[in-house]
Structure prediction request, 589 residues.
Amino acid sequence: MTPAADMEQESWFHKNQQRIAPWLFLAPGLLFFMVYVIIPVFQSFNLSLYEWDGLGAAEYVGFRNYEDLYWEWVDRDAFYTSLKNNLIWLILYLAAIPAGLFIALFLNQTVWGIRLYKSLFFFPFVISQVVVGLVFTWFYDPTFGLLNEFLGLFGLGPLNVLGDERFVTYGIIFAGLWPQTAYCMILYLTGLNAVDPEQIEAGRLDGAKGLRMLWHIILPQLRPATFIAFVVTIIGALRSFDLISIMTQGGPFGSSRVLAYYMFEVALSEYGFRMGYGAAIAVILFLIMLCFIAYFLWSMYREEKGH
Amino acid sequence: MFPKPIEKQSRTAQISYQAMLPLALLLWLGPLLAVALFSVKPAADFTNANYWGMPSSFEGAFNYGQVFFNSDMPRYLLNSFLITIPTVIGAVALSCMTGFALGIYKFRSNIWIFFMFVAGNFVPFQILMVPVRDLTLQLGLYNTKTGLVLFHIAFQTGFCTLFMRNFIRALPFELIEAARVEGISEWRIFWYVVLPLMKPAIAALSVLIFTFIWNDYFWAVVLTQGAESQPVTAGITSFNAQFRAAYQLMSAGSIVAALPPVAMFFLMQKHFIAGLTLGAVK
Prediction:
């Protein structure tokens, strides 16, 4: 290349550099994200209008998959159970937030060895949900589980938590709360670290103590931590799949299914490869999630404007 | 500090707090400690219903030896590493660039692209499942580690971009302006000015993504099948099928499967927590 051409090219690039550069930096990440995340969302929407076994030709059926789901709802069938369980998950999983706050308050001291305690309390979050599921399956085991050992001390039990339709979902949620509480705890510990000591002193001078202090002075300052805890807990509740798959596979008699699991069962298991029907379930789950995503993004948008 | 420091309270309060700490921890980690106890028991203890007493003999070495030398576990562990490490590198590399683009440049669609990454990061996996599985099949990558890695990189880019972009936003912008005045090209600004400052973010993200990917189960089940490509989270179900009712071995297997992210957490604790709690403090 001649020096002149080189100059010319460089000056063109130089002039437009600030406009072109962001797109060059974005290109690889954006491409990957489009292909594997954004486009598949729309493909699933489209697929939910078809009947497809994953191999042969897909047959367009309009909204029939959704109609079938509606009838499952009316008949209180699998879809109804899944949706109901999702709601229970959403509500009860939120208990991780106050529980995490409680443990964080308990551990927010400076005694000897407290750092190790904090790490060990956080521990369950680092373990995979598969292992958490196994650990709690054994914990609930009716013959040798720790829970029944404990109940036995009071002359109660044995209780087969995972084998009883009345308790199974609550049992799995309890297992899920274990790591989730640890996560909320660490968020609050970080938040508590940054609480303004002057405000606490001022509050003490005003005679605020205990719960009143927590409610009026500490919690408002912990809002960013609470927001993140809320986001991750909601997402975690709607993503619940691993624990159900490991602990009960949706049983007994499908009573612990949630949408995420039911969708998998319909689309990819021995019950048959009903991809279109599965996609319709996924779309419903997505729409539920979308309400929360919209709220999260709206909060973030307000924040961005504030800056 | 809230609650009131325990040193400033009565002696009884101090002593009871010190006593409560280990008790609370024991209660908290109870189910896990039970599994640890199971993993060193001999098989005979389970047939004799000696579940909770002292192990009649200490069989830790034998049980863990079984896991490592008499099962597919080493294979699964290796697969997990071969899936996790490339994903960490890929996702962090991509998001350094996307984060830089969205954090530094002002252009009209900036915030929308950013929100797209954030929103995508929150979608339920099931809505991606069928199309992603189909795409992976078409690429001939079904039941390969590469197929899993490619998807993980793409999906994690959403969260990583959110993280990196916010981190870069907090850097002093004057540095970049000064470099531009000097006439340094944008690529060099990225490589020589911004990237060195991003080291803490890169470290934090690496540990986080390592843990997330190591612990992934759903995509492992959807995109892989056999011992040649399955990571340990999916492999452990076949492992448990192989050693059905051998609780001492299943316990040892679970502990082995859980260990790498735990080790990662304890080694890189500061970065790990910094990553997880980003944004928890204003």
